[in-house]
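Budget justification aside, the reviewers requested a transparent look at the raw inputs and outputs of the sequence design task funded under Objective 1. We therefore reproduce one unedited record. The lines immediately below are the structure tokens for a 148-residue chain.
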């Protein structure tokens, strides 16, 4: 599966640069968040309003071949735009983990399942705990499972 359509790069220069490096190197460069050394994946989806292709680097939270997509936005009061894109079209999402690119289906987690995965997220990227403390919203998370 490949999402077709016009690609609309992020308005944030560092996101555009990271996505370009990640993809142009076949997933061999640009695979960590800036200077943290922590791994990221690239999530590709369709904009729910524009219909354009969007690409977002997210922290790599993987367990048994499934991935958690954390809509933290650094603890901002509002969800990131990509959250609404995934909620609107959970069956047409792609994920690239290093050189491996594949189709996924996503579903938002709640309750005990969310709590279990949230612990994994904080273990992979400890600032998530601080982000949750900064905001009144419960940071949404999606579980991404291969669909191809």
């Amino acid at each position: 599966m490949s999402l077709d359509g016009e690609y609309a790069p992020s308005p944030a220069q560092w996101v555009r640069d990271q996505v370009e490096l990640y993809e142009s190197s076949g997933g061999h460069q640009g695979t960590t968040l800036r200077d943290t050394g922590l791994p990221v994946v690239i999530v590709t989806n369709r904009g729910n309003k524009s219909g354009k292709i969007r690409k977002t680097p997210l922290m790599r939270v993987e367990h048994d071949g499934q991935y958690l997509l954390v809509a933290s936005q650094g603890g901002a009061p509002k969800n990131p735009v990509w959250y609404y894109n995934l909620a609107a079209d959970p069956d047409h999402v792609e994920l690239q983990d290093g050189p491996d690119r594949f189709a996924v289906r996503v579903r938002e987690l709640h309750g005990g399942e969310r709590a279990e995965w949230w612990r994994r997220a904080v273990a992979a990227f400890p600032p998530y705990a601080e982000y949750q403390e900064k905001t009144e919203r419960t940071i949404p998370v999606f579980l991404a499972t291969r669909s191809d």
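Residues 111-124 form the longest helix (14 residues). The CA atoms of residues 48 and 88 lie 6 Å apart. Computational costs for records of this kind are itemized in the attached budget.
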